[in-house]
Amino acid sequence: MAELFATPVLEVRWAKVVGDPEPNKWEPTKRPSWSIEALIDPQNPEHMQWVASAEDHFAQFHGDQGKKSANWLAIGPDKEDRTKLVAKFKMPQFTRKDGTTSPGPTVMDAGKQPWPHNKLIGNGSKARIGYTIYPWSSPSGQGVTMQPTHVQVIELVEYSSSGAPSADPFQVEQTGYKLPDADANCPMPGSSVVITEPQGTGIPF
How far apart are CA 166 and CA 161, in angstroms? Predict the structure, then answer.
């Protein structure tokens, strides 16, 4: 069994780890995959300690004399915020010999309870990412890919497809237009944050 590693709690974005894998829009012949990005603060010692351990994966799998490719590790300056680094995790879906497909990451809440398949993780959420290392070689050099196997959501920012906050600034009105069969006493959805101390073993959190 591949060794499991884990990040500290990091701010995440573009979390495509819930439900089916995402197809590759630019190269449709490639396998669909699950992916997530995590932001790293260079001023945070815990963050940089993890970056150092991630860089050590190269020597672990390719040796001290391995030739590093230009993109040997998916950690680098963030294009959106130059004061931070971004780490990218990606795991393709494989088709087994019996025709079945490999599962995606196991996602859970802060209390390690299973994550609903219809609840997406919005940008700005905070999470730990459990991952394995896939070493690879190419004519230009070698590298490692961090493949996400587990995600523990510590603080949730609700996903909004429009980019607007999912919480709204309105209150329920007792009068005015209502859709047929609408329940005026049903509150509009809002975001919530659940933080508990993780317990137990068996995963890297």
Answer: 9
Q: Taking the CA of residue 52 as centre, how many other CA atoms within 13 Å lie in the half-sphere pointing to its CB?
A: 7
Q: How far is CA 10 from CA 101, 110, 170, 190, in A?
A: 29, 13, 31, 23
Percent of the chain with pLDDT over 70: 84
3-state secondary structure of 46: helix
Nearest to 19 by CA among 93, 109, 74, 125: 93
The torsion angles phi and psi of 138, rounded to 5 degrees, stand at -145, 170
pTM of the entire predicted model: 0.78
Q: Residue 166: CB partners within 8 Å, gap ≥ 6?
A: 122, 158, 159, 160, 189, 190, 191
Q: What is the percentage of the chain residues whose pLDDT exceeds 90?
A: 71
Of residues 20 and 186, which shows the higher confidence score? 20
Q: Which two tokens stand for residue 70?
A: 């230009």
